[in-house]
Write a structure and sequence with these properties.
Largest sheet: 6 strands, antiparallel
Mean pLDDT: 85
Low-confidence stretches: none
Number of strands: 10
Strand order of the largest sheet: 3-2-1-6-5-4
Strand content: 15-25%
Structural class: alpha+beta
């Protein structure tokens, strides 16, 4: 008859309620989707920032580290990607394992400085250490700060930077200045040559440098070779250039640089292999130095 009964009204109300809930859920789902999109964008930005930070650390050779709480012994370090690369360790490493690779004096000082941080006796650390990684000794500049909670040390975070090249460059500049000053002052040739050798050996601490002087009549004589054994220097005194004259004699004979990576197997060292083995000389390269007339 076109009129609503009470039952019809009840059904209509139920449909209205269902529609209201559906609309509410739809809006909630839309909000969640928007939140998900915003969160995805934020996560992308966080990831981008982390990648930029990692790239920046690699360019600067500067890594970050922290002592994982709680600050109790044995201490555990958490290293950033660049810090782990610099010290050639895993991202999680024990403090004792890392310090064991430092030179003895630096290791003792670093242990004491970190102990002061953990105990709350100091708030910051700033020092350089020498750390051996594989066959290379690196110079690392280490900084750290401690944050406290209710007056007690709670967290230690720091940085480490590979400054090996900067220190080598500074030392070479210093030795260059000494060598050139000696030459300008007319110091004895032996002193100037010794300064040149010191310059190269500071850059290659595991190598041995020598400078030989050549006289066409007398052959090779030692100009300066402080770290070569005296018996070895005496054995090659007067050596004449030849096609198989070791590295130095061959370099003069060929008038070019000669590089020998294994003195025990290279034909150029066939006559000198026992002498090299006796004095622990495994490899040798030699570069001839000419005067203005190419002599």
């Amino acid at each position: 008859d076109g009129e609503f009964t009470e039952d019809d009204e009840a059904v209509a109300v139920q449909f209205a309620q269902i529609a209201s809930v559906a609309i509410g859920w739809a809006r909630l789902i839309d909000d969640l989707r928007k939140t998900q999109v915003d969160l995805s964008h934020q996560l992308e930005e966080v990831g981008r920032s982390r990648r930029l930070l990692t790239d920046a650390e690699r360019v600067a050779k500067l890594g970050s580290w922290e002592i994982e709480p709680p600050l109790t012994y044995p201490l555990r370090l958490k290293l950033s990607e660049e810090a782990a690369r610099i010290v050639e360790r895993d991202a999680a490493v024990s403090f004792d394992e890392l310090v064991a690779s430092a030179s003895a004096d630096d290791a003792e000082m670093l242990r004491q400085r970190v102990a002061d941080l953990v105990a709350g006796h100091s708030q910051a650390l700033d020092m350089e250490i020498r750390l051996r990684t594989g066959a290379v000794q690196k110079r690392l500049h280490i900084k750290a700060q401690v944050t406290s909670d209710r007056g007690h040390p709670a967290h230690v975070i720091g940085t480490l930077q590979d400054v090996t090249q900067q220190r080598l460059d500074a030392e070479q500049d210093r030795l260059n200045a000494i060598a050139f000053a000696g030459i300008a002052a007319g110091n004895p040739l032996e002193d100037s040559l010794a300064n040149v050798i010191a310059m190269y050996e500071s850059r290659f601490p595991d190598g041995i440098c020598s400078i030989l002087l050549y006289d066409p009549k007398k052959g090779l004589t030692s100009g300066s070779a402080e770290r070569l054994p005296a018996a070895y220097n005496k054995a090659i005194e007067g050596l004449m250039p030849s096609a198989k004259g070791g590295s130095c004699g061959t370099a003069i004979f060929r008038r070019e640089r000669v590089i020998v990576t294994d003195t025990q197997s290279d034909p150029l060292w066939a006559d000198f292999a026992p002498l090299a083995a006796q004095h622990g000389l495994a490899a040798c390269w030699s570069t001839p130095i000419f005067d203005g007339a190419r002599n």
